Amino acid sequence: MKEKVIFTTALCLSAMTPMMAQNITGKVMNTKGEPLAFANVVLLNRTDSAFVKGAVSGEAGSFVIDSSCNGGIIKVTSVGYKTICKDCTGENMGIIKMEEDSETLGEVVVKSSMPKTILKNGGMTTTIVGSVLEKAGTMENLLDRIPNVSAQNGSIKVFGRGEPVIYINGRQMRDKSELDHLHSDNIKSVEVITNPGARYAASTKAVIRITTKKIQGEGFGFDAKTTGEYDEKKNFGGFGQLNMNYRKNGLELGAYAFGARQYQPDNKDLQQKTYLDKTWNQKSEIRQVGIINSSLIIQ
User: Fold this and answer.
1) DSSP string, 203-226
2) What is the CATH number of the domain that holds 157?
3) Whole domain around residue 288: which residue ranges?
4) How far is the C-alpha of 189 from the C-alpha of 37, rounded, in Å?
5) Same structural domain for residues 208 and 110?
6) Alpha carbon 21 to chain centroid distance?
7) Looking at the structure, do residues 46 and 113 belong to the same domain, yes or no?
8) Considering its fold, how many domains does the chain have in total?
9) Span 96-109, mean pLDDT?
10) Residue 238: CB partners within 8 Å, gap ≥ 6?
11) How many Cβ atoms are within 10 Å of 199's Cβ, its own excluded?
């Protein structure tokens, strides 16, 4: 009986070993040997640099990505430091040292401070106002620098939770175009909630709450943007969007309109088959049948 128990235990341990080896671990530090907290560590696909999985470093600078390398690339970013990309060759990435970005700090740090991120009410809140993140530019650039968030090519994801539900000043965002007319210098704070409570729908896996600065002045305002393209066949396409808002006595109303034109060639594939029949070889009198295929593409 004892031998059977020992055998079963050994079998369980051997089954758990490959599962435990799926994690990518490491530690993020600066050149002074100090740990860097809230640094984004992302695993990217080598072929197209697509986001695979990510993690954020803790107070001691340590991180754990729940994935195997699969020949990917590890990208580490932290505000005020140069971005580092390393080949992911094993489960233990060791110590990753980050160098200060002198170009960013040299001009901005005098007037702005580093952003502050705090853990509160099951979420992670990053203060934007008064920090170097005010200079990030677009909302996609800003969100990509927020701990626990990846934003690229119009796709926004929270590490380990997938696509989040986004709120702007307490109102749920219905269309991603609403982010287009926001700018980093008008953002007060960004809160990332990875474990939404009962106040959100059961299907909600993650929440990003964006709070803007208080807008001064009243009346009607608008902004617009357009894009266009013209190919070698003289086909024209483009996109246009108009954002409008009206403020009066603390009430703010907003609306937007957009239109797009995209040219898609109507390709037609016409195939023609020619059959050669009753072809004789005078010496062997063997009948041969040949088939010639030709195709013509009409655009």
Assistant:
1) T---EEEEEEPPPP--EEEEEEEE
2) 2.170.130.10
3) 268-298
4) 18
5) yes
6) 26
7) no
8) 4
9) 69
10) 226, 227, 228, 229, 260, 261
11) 7
